[in-house]
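U., I forgot to send this yesterday:
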Amino acid sequence: MSNISKVLAVILIIVCIGSAVMDFRKPEKLVEEMKKLKVPAERLPLLGAIKILGAVGLAAGFSSVQLGESAGVGLTVYFAVATVTHTRVKDSAKETAPAFILFVISVLYLLTTIAK
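Result:
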């Protein structure tokens, strides 16, 4: 695993854990955003769990590249779907940017991990 992959993994781990904590807490602002995205608030714990699993997989990827790659694929799909969900409801670029940036970081993580 390259140093770039490691840095990207750490960024994704931190963001995913922070975001998952918010999903589990269900602050009103997040619940309102989910309504706008047509995602039921009851799904927030599931979304948080997916991010935690992705973060754990990335962390495991420091010793098992295959686990890291699998987690990277999962997070890439997750953030691609999040980006499409924002786009579908015609969110602004500012509102869509976090999901899209995390999608790009996930793709870069995968590319730098696979490139060896």
